[in-house]
Amino acid sequence: MKKKMVMVVDDNADLIHMIKKMLEKITDYTVIGVQSGKDCFKTLKSGEIPDLMLLDIMMPGMTGWDVLAKLRNDPMWEKIPVIFLTAKDDDASVGLGTLTSEGYITKPFDISYLKEIVDKFI
Amino acid sequence: MFEENNTDVMNHVMNSFFKVISTRTTPAHAWLTLKKMIGKLTYNYNFLENIYVVEIKNIKEMEYYNTNIKSIVNIESNVIDNVNRNIIGKLIQSFADEIIKYLGKKAGYHLLCEFRYDLGDEYFSIIKSMGVDLHLDTLEYDLYGYDNEKDLIEKKNNKENEILSELI
User: pTM for this structure?
Assistant: First the structure.
């Protein structure tokens, strides 16, 4: 059976590496990472569609807010569950992010909590 | 107070919500938020199927819509203007309640204050007459407490009295 795939979209390469290492260790998921919104859509267009996306908000160029809006506006990708994974912890961002996505996790985060949320939506 | 039809009121309300949400995230995300909220509330207010959110992908597009179309929503006036005004009021109330539910009291209060400011006095009076309560007074009380203000004034008065008694 094909493994479920998680895509991490974050401009921090170290964080992508850490999530990949940890999640692949404690789950059966394959984790891929991209460092910008632009690369995220490049990967999606190439046919690599994840079963869930972990999305940072504050990224240079296209923000996570815009990535989510673009995903939800395309029938090909609108159903991909998206969890925001971000350092933005003000109430307005958390509230608005929760309203439009499947989940909102603030950094720093606990890997077992991340696993729990990923398991819930994948 | 001047009378406006439901379409005008909804246009103003939706555009104000769009603006205040845009400042906290981005225009594209504000667009998504409005779409999501309309989707959620359509279950209870099926006439919302006649309100379409215009697509906004980025700030450039928002500027284009601000200057050329002037509204984030397209409304089928022939349907919306025939909806009972109190029902429109209940819908706007539901929008405000959802904001508080998701953002919490503090962030919700600030967003609704900005919404009220952006809406302007005339349209604020209109939605008030439609039964909308943005809970601004209650939220202000809950967040900042009038008692604290009273305490501050009392402390200030006591200090002034102390200084006065020393002088005397």
Answer: 0.85
